[in-house]
Amino acid sequence: EVQLVESGGGLVKPGGSLRLSCAASGFTFSSYTMDWVRQAPGKGLEWVSSISNSSSYIYYADSVKGRFTISRDNAKNSLYLQMNSLRAEDTAVYYCARDRDFWSGVPAGGDYWGQGILVTVSS
Amino acid sequence: DIQMTQSPPSLSASVGDRVTITCQATQDISNYLNWYQQKPGKAPKLLIYDASNLEIGVPSRFSGRGSGTDFTFTISSLQPEDIATYYCQQSDNLPLTFGGGTKVEIK
After folding, report:
1. What is the pLDDT of residue A103?
2. Whether B46 and A62 lie within 8 Å, measured CB to CB
3. A37 and A48 in contact (C-beta within 8 Å)?
4. Closest residue of A to B86, CA-based?
5. Distance from chain centroid for Cα B4
6. How far is B50 from chain A (nearest CA, A)?
7. What percentage of chain B's residues is helix, strand, coil (to nearest 5)?
8. Which of A70, A100, B41, B47 is the most exposed place for a label (fewest CB within 10 A)?
9. Rounded CA gap, B102 and B23, in Å?
10. Residues 6 or more apart from B56 whose CB is under 8 A from it?
């Protein structure tokens, strides 16, 4: 059974940093592109970032480019999102998702999602 | 960026009704279109990929069709457990973009 469990969320002040982690199990983690998607309270879904299976291809939404860094450790079956220079508008539930892509490196949308972790940016 | 416009934003229907949601892209996305279901407080769940392919384990009352810029998602016979918000998402171009969602309620 595919499982994705996010951790590392919480309350942080504007300008602060936070590192999210996603522990994956139940599939060959090193074969799949992985995604982060967020959802502001009461709002829709917003794609944040994707990383290919070997970390060769990395993509970001313009809204987080230069502030967020996605990475993965295939030996630990883990995905990460380092978030710096956080703003109030980054407040959201952040979802880790396994992407449907497992060969091209181009994200195709998530087919399995974690339960999400809340990040609140407020003074 | 490709904008995805979903309609209606919300709908109310009776159990057993046929429900249709539309999604329109601002440019041709071929069939690179996914549909997700999100129940309150839960993560999204992939229902349909590549416009018309049903994800394994998803009931056959869900279906999708379309290509290019115009897509439809249909629930052939609405069930109480289908109460959720449904999102389309294009995967033709980065950034991946979602529609605004359609909230489905029982009348």
Report:
1. 80
2. no
3. yes
4. A44
5. 11
6. 9
7. 5, 50, 45
8. B41
9. 10
10. none
CB A81 within 8 A of CB A94: yes
Structure-token pair, residue A57:
């291809």
- DSSP 8-state symbol, A31: G
Q: According to the model, what pLDDT value does residue B93 have?
A: 95
Which ranges of chain B have pLDDT less than 70? none
Whether the link from the prior residue into B8 is cis, omega within 30° of 0, is yes
Are the Cβ atoms of B34 and A109 closer than 8 angstroms? yes
**What residues pair up with A75 in beta bridges, in sequence order?**
none
- Give the pair of three-digit tokens for residue B104: 């489905």
Q: What is the pLDDT of residue B7?
A: 98
**Is it the case that residue A104 has pLDDT exceeding 90?**
no
Residues in chain A whose Cβ is within 8 Å of chain B: 35, 37, 44-47, 50, 59, 61-62, 95, 100, 106-116
Contact A45 B91 (CB under 8 A): no
Number of Cβ pairs < 8 A linking chain A and chain B: 57
Give which of B32, B36, B96 to mutate to test A binding, by max A Cβ within 10 Å.
B96
* Chain A residue with the nearest C-alpha to that of B101: A44
